[in-house]
Design goal:
The complex is a heterodimer of chains A (about 230) and B (about 350). Chain A is built from 12 helices and no strands. Chain A has about 230 residues and is mainly alpha-helical. Chain A starts with a helix and ends in a 6-residue tail after the last helix. With about 350 residues, chain B is an alpha+beta fold. Classes of the chains: A mainly alpha (about 230), B alpha+beta (about 350).
C-alpha cells in the first residue's frame, strides 16, 4: 500500500491531462461534424447514402493502426498535404498534440455520426413539415426541432465518442507518437509501462481511466435522464 | 376566396391526377386511405412537389411547372394541421406557438397570450406536448397555426386517430374555433361524416382521380360515380340494365325497378343505401300508400326483394341484416324502427324507394 502511495505521489500526471484534453477536443469536433454529416446523409438519396455512410463508418471497423497508417500517409511532411500545411501555415500534425486530436477524432467520429443519424431517422417527418409551413427556415428547424428531439440519441453518441476518444491508442501512437508531456496519453502510458514490466503503475493508470469513464457516463446519464423524462413521444 | 389545383404526380402504384377549382370557404376531400388525398394537401402546402401542374390560392401562384414557380412552404402562408398534430415534442406549448413567429419579443408575447386565451390553453403554457391530452394537443396545434395568421388552413385527417367518444367533442370544438376564420379551409378525410360536417363543397378521390366534385349535400344525394357512392357510405350495388327511361333491371339483386323519374342513360349500376329499405309484410301488400308507425309516409316503393335472411349482426344502436341475392344485400335498421320488426316479425320483402335509388356510372 505504501508502495502505491509512493508511486502516486511521484506520478507524472501529464498523461491524464493530455487524455482529457484530447478527448474533449475530439468530442467537440465530432459532435458538430457528426451531426452535420448525419443531416447530410439522412437527406441524401439511397445510393449516395450507402457510399457516404460506408466511408464515414470505416474508421470504426478498420483496425486503428490501419486508420493511423492512412493518417500518416495524409499528414506526413514527406507527403503533399503534410508538406503544404507545414510550408504554408507552419502546421505540424505528426508527433504533435494536434495529431492526438486528429487520430482520436477520426476513430471516435463514427460513433457520434451513427448515433445522431439513427436518432434523426426516427424523427417524424411531419415535425419538419410543420416547421416549414410555419415559416421556419430549414436551419432553424434543424437546430431547434430536430437536434433537441434527437437529444437522447445525440447525448448517448456524445458519451460514447468521448469514451472512445479518451482511450484511443492505435492510431494515436502512429500519428502522434508517445512524447511524454506532449502526446503521451494514458493508454500509451499504460502500454509503455507494461513493456517495462511495471504492472503497478499500469494498474494505477487503468484505475484512473476507469473512474473517468464511469464518471462521465454516470453524469451524462443523470443529466440526459432528467431532461428527457418529460419528453413523451406525443 | 378561390382555390385552383391542377396536379399530376407519379406515385408508387398509381398516378395522381387531380384538377379542381372552388370558391367555397370550406372544402372537403373524401377518399380511401392511400388514394392521394393527403398528397394533394401536401402539394398545396408545398411539402410535396407535384411532377406537373398549377396551384393557385386567392390569386397567388404557389406552383406552376411551366412558369417554373415553386413557392417555398415558408412563403405560402398555409396552416397545416397534421393528423398527429406534429407539435414539437421538446418545446412547451408556449414555445410551440412562438416557434414560427416573426417580430419583436413584445409582439410575440402578446400574440402567444392572445392565442392561449382564444384556444383555452391557460395554465398549460409551460407544459410539453407529451403532457397534454388529445384535445389539448389539438387546440395547441391550432393555436400555433392561427398565431401565424395563415391565409388558408389544411386539415389532414384531423380526427382519425381519436376514439369515438373524443371524436365528436373535438369535431364540435374545431368547428367552433374555425367559425370566425375567414380564409379557406380544406379538410381531408376517409370518414364521410367528417367531410359532411365540415365542408360546403366536396371532392371525392379514388385512386388518384376525382370521382365526383360539387356541393357536398348534392354529392351525398346523387353521387353519380360508383366509387363516390361507396365512399359516401352506400353499401349495396347492383349491375343495372336500363330497359327504357322508366325501367331498369338490377341484375345482381334480381329485381326490376320501375320508376316515375327518368333513369339517366349513363346508368350502369344502381346503388342503394342500407338504411333506405322499406320492410313489407305479405299481409299488407295492397300497394296502397302505407305509413310508418310514427305516421310519416314510407316513400314510394318501386320494386321488391324477397326477404331471404343470410345472417344478421347486432350493434348498439342498430341491427344489420344481410339478405341473400346474387350478391349480399345489407339492410340496416335503426333502433327506433326495431319495434315494428319485433311486433310483426321479419318482413317478407324489402322494397326500394325510388327517391332513394342512386343511378351510377
Amino acid at each position: 500500500m505504501e508502495e502505491i502511495m509512493q508511486i502516486v505521489k511521484d506520478l507524472d500526471w501529464s498523461p491524464l491531462f493530455i487524455s482529457l484534453k484530447t478527448g474533449a477536443a475530439a468530442t467537440f469536433i465530432s459532435f458538430f461534424l457528426g451531426i452535420f454529416a448525419a443531416r447530410k446523409v439522412v437527406k441524401a438519396t439511397p445510393g449516395k447514402k450507402a457510399v457516404i455512410d460506408g466511408i464515414l463508418t470505416l474508421p470504426m471497423v478498420l483496425p486503428p493502426t490501419a486508420a493511423g497508417f492512412f493518417l500518416l500517409l495524409l499528414f506526413s511532411r514527406r507527403r503533399p498535404l503534410g508538406e503544404f500545411l507545414f510550408e504554408q501555415f507552419d502546421f505540424k500534425v505528426v508527433q504533435t498534440w494536434i495529431g492526438c486530436v486528429i487520430a482520436a477524432t477520426v476513430i471516435a467520429f463514427p460513433l457520434m455520426y451513427r448515433n445522431a443519424r439513427a436518432a434523426m431517422e426516427q424523427i417524424d417527418m411531419n415535425l419538419v413539415y410543420a416547421g416549414r409551413t410555419l415559416g421556419m427556415s430549414d436551419t432553424k428547424i434543424f437546430w431547434t426541432v430536430i437536434v433537441p428531439t434527437a437529444g437522447p440519441g445525440i447525448a448517448s453518441g456524445t458519451i460514447l465518442t468521448f469514451a472512445r476518444a479518451l482511450g484511443e491508442y492505435g492510431a494515436t501512437s502512429m500519428l502522434a507518437g508517445n512524447i511524454p508531456g506532449k502526446t503521451g496519453t494514458i493508454s500509451q502510458k499504460i502500454a509503455m509501462v507494461i513493456q517495462d514490466g511495471d504492472y503497478l503503475t499500469a494498474g494505477i493508470w487503468t484505475a484512473v481511466v476507469m473512474i473517468i469513464a464511469f464518471l462521465v457516463i454516470f453524469l451524462m446519464n443523470l443529466i440526459s435522464g432528467k431532461k428527457m423524462k418529460h419528453i413523451g413521444r406525443w | 376566396m378561390a382555390v385552383t389545383v391542377e396536379i399530376k404526380k407519379k406515385l408508387d402504384n398509381f398516378r395522381l391526377d387531380i384538377s379542381f377549382r372552388s370558391d367555397a370557404r370550406r372544402i372537403g376531400i373524401l377518399g380511401a386511405s392511400g388514394c392521394g388525398k393527403s398528397m394533394t394537401l401536401k402539394s398545396i402546402a408545398g411539402i410535396e412537389l407535384p411532377d406537373e401542374g398549377h396551384i393557385e390560392v386567392e390569386g397567388r401562384i404557389f406552383f406552376d411547372k411551366e412558369k417554373k414557380i415553386n413557392l417555398k412552404p415558408q412563403l405560402r402562408n398555409v396552416g397545416y394541421l397534421f393528423q398527429n398534430y406534429a407539435l414539437f415534442p421538446t418545446m412547451t406549448v408556449e414555445k410551440n406557438i412562438v416557434a414560427g413567429l416573426k417580430g419583436s419579443r413584445q409582439e410575440k408575447e402578446a400574440r402567444v397570450r392572445e392565442m392561449v386565451e382564444k384556444f383555452r390553453l391557460q395554465g398549460l403554457e409551460k407544459r410539453l406536448p407529451g403532457q397534454l391530452s388529445g384535445g389539448q394537443q389539438q387546440r395547441a396545434a391550432l393555436a400555433r397555426i392561427m398565431a401565424y395568421e395563415p391565409g388558408m388552413i389544411l386539415l389532414d385527417e384531423p380526427f382519425s386517430a381519436l376514439d369515438m367518444y373524443l371524436k365528436d367533442q373535438l369535431q364540435r370544438e374545431l368547428a367552433e374555433m374555425l367559425e370566425d376564420y375567414r380564409g379557406t379551409v380544406i379538410v381531408v378525410s376517409h370518414n364521410r361524416d367528417e367531410v359532411y360536417r365540415f365542408s360546403e363543397e366536396l371532392l371525392v378521390i379514388g385512386q388518384g382521380e376525382i370521382e365526383a366534385a360539387g356541393e357536398t349535400k348534392e354529392i351525398f344525394r346523387n353521387p353519380v360515380s360508383r366509387e363516390a357512392a361507396r365512399l359516401t357510405g352506400c353499401k349495396n350495388f347492383s349491375k343495372a340494365r336500363r330497359i327504357d327511361a322508366h325501367t331498369a333491371e338490377a341484375e345482381d339483386w334480381g329485381v326490376t325497378l320501375t320508376t316515375r323519374r327518368e333513369i339517366p342513360e349513363y346508368t350502369e349500376y344502381i346503388g342503394y343505401r342500407a338504411h333506405d329499405f322499406i320492410p313489407v309484410w305479405d299481409t299488407e301488400r295492397t300497394g296502397k300508400n302505407r305509413t310508418d308507425s310514427d305516421g310519416s309516409p314510407y316513400g314510394s316503393p318501386c320494386g321488391m326483394l324477397p326477404f331471404e335472411l343470410e345472417s344478421s349482426a347486432e350493434l348498439p344502436f342498430e341491427k344489420n341484416y344481410y339478405i341473400k341475392t346474387k350478391v349480399t344485400v345489407c339492410w340496416f335498421v335503426q333502433r327506433e324502427r326495431m319495434q315494428e320488426l319485433e311486433e310483426k316479425g321479419m318482413p317478407d320483402y324489402l322494397a326500394f324507394d325510388e327517391e332513394k335509388l342512386l343511378f351510377l356510372r
